[in-house]
Automatic annotation (TrEMBL):
SMART domains: STAT_int. It comes from the Eukaryota. It comes from Oryzias sinensis (Chinese medaka). It is found in: Cytoplasm; Nucleus. Residues 140-167 form a coiled coil. Residues 692-715 are annotated as: Disordered. This is Signal transducer and activator of transcription. GO terms for biological process: immune response; signal transduction.
Amino acid sequence: MAQWESLLKLPASYRLQLDDLYDRDFLPMDVRHHLSAWIEKQDWQRATQDHALASVLLQVLLENLDIQHSRFVQEELFLQQHNIRRYKHKFQIHQDDPCKLASTIHWYLEKEKEILKDATLDEQVQRLTVTQETMEISCQQDLECKMSSLKNEVQCMEHAVICLEEQQDEFDFKYQTHMLEATADEALKQEQFKTLQMLVNKLNECRKSILMDMNKLLDRVEGLIHCLVDKELIDWKRRQQKSCIGAPDNVCLDQMEKWFTGVAVCLFQMLEFLKKLDELVGKMTYPNDPVKAQKPALQTRTNSLLQTLLKSSFVVETQPSMPQGKGPLVLRTNVQFSAKTRILVKFPELNHSLTVAVSMDRYRRFNVLGTRTKALNMAESHSGGMVADFRHLTLREQKSGSGGKGVSDISLSVTEELHLIYFDTLFELKGFSVQLQTCSLPVVIISNSSQQQSAWASILWCNMLSQDHKDVMFFANTPAAPWPQFAEMLSWQFLSATKRGLDGAQLEMIAHRLFGKQENYDTCNVTWSKFSKGNTPESFWVWFDGILVMVKMYLEDLWREGLIMGFVNKSKEKSLLKRKQRGTFLLRFSESVIGGITFSWVEIRNPKIKTVQPFTKVDLSQIPFHEIIRNYQILEAENVPENPLLYLYPNIPKDDAFGKFYTEKTGDDSPYIKYIKTKLMFVSKENALEARSSDMEQGAGPEPQTGLYGEGADQVDYPEPLESTLETYSPDPMLSSSAEPQTDELLLYLNNPNNFSADFLPSDSPLPDLNLSSFISTPIQACGGIYL
């Protein structure tokens, strides 16, 4: 397909580039269109160096224009006739230098090929890119097209400035020749004067045209800067905020760097063009010179746009964080933290030339210690960006009297007090300089690790709701969180910690816990006080974070596989299990024990639902949860042990669900089995344990009636006393809330039995009995493992 035909079939954005390319009269688009076949067949590149060939091509071009004019006459197209005559007249000017015309046409053809190449590459990228959203792709494509168009405009401007300089040199040469010849022939003088006047007029028109094109170019640049600074950069900063609290958003800056650098290069070239105009005016000027009149305004506008771009290009790529913190933006005094800044305008010649300094907001009471200055360089970035990576910073609290608590008298807790860390540098390049400053997102500074949980809650709330990156008084008037936004944030916590977020059913159960039964939770709001009441057990965040920590430390594999249902209340548990086959069980988090997980099952011998007391990190740190499930046994009345856990809800055989996690040893060979046997306790109304019992047929849990959510708060009817005496209680160390190993060696053996020799525990003797006092710090009646 012919080149011109291919161009006309491109998408609208690329046709816009084509329109921009021909937005001048060096080669009119009408001529390119009507003579496209002939133009593309000629060797214009050779004609740029071959005067004879260029002359022939010019003559043929003029003849073709005559032929086209005749067609328009026959078709009575008056406007086209007029345009063709005008174009022919312009081309006739090149008869003295046909190579220049050949060079111009060759340049246009090459630019057309670049547009086609970009379009083809973009089409290939479209086919390969299947993960990005359609709107995002469209926006990026639009920006890419605008950047490509801007690049073409600058190249055309460069070509126009060169032509202007050549015209001025031509005039200067003829003027100097005229002055040297000093002919006495008045008629010849008049003729020479007319020629010089014609050249001056042509030069004046060319200057006006360039100045007009410069204004158009700056209009395009201004539009691009608005798009980059007020949309793309703001969107990136919001994505970074969300990524700091667990969202899986893309925060890569490489594409943004490409755009910012492209616009900056164009503006620096514009400064060079303006400097060239100054040189030309210095060599030659005249009354009403348009350059003298318009150039100062162009200079001011260019400088202003470049300053805006550069000031916005300095960002914090990696927010301040401690190596062992819960997340970024929570810092502790006297503990090292790191942060990374990046300038999105990348000029290789500035490598190691710009120095960045760190400081704290002046109205706070902390000093920054450590390596406080770093040079922006490309060595510390995997993608080759220009970064300053601060890895050894420390905050130290000032002595009392060195400064106030803040700019406001409003009393805030330590974990609600927000701070900013500033980064400053001086940008200098090609005689242009501007002071740059950026700052971190608001950080919380603590002095004790016990404050970390509450501090992280503040960071979650602030970055979930606030888009003002400098609002250090956010908690002076804390807004509530809409449930959809709040639910998304909760899911991010699990997603970032375990690679698996919360599904709709789990989030609905959490909403039910917070708001009760509602037809639609989307209109509900969560207040800051309801989310985090300091660091008390009544806080929703303390309960939720306790579960999150437990899952991350001990249950990540099981959670990631979807084996833990997790957020299920007891009424829902009852409805799920009551119609299931006997031996079906599910795993859920405790509603009253912080950081607890339990399992409930349908009893094998009769269709009742039983629940075990929650396991906490104390238990799970000694025996993996999948081994507890694997070897769990109940001693029935006949003293026959059996495992009541057969099918993971809804109907997955236990070994199919958990088999991949089992250790090599099985059955009685397992070192864990002797420590997870549980005896069934028969409870009567007169027994002291009655207050801790529940009716499992009604789906009620056996857990303590303490905490915010009162898992055992529902009143139930207790079963009639059984006609049997209580068995001697044999404590289960795994079900105790304060279990500790008797000896270090035993604990090591339980966790890593393969690391010990065969004679560590003689095969003919059982594992040593564990002393009751080593595992239980509460009275025996508070520790039953199974509840009827």
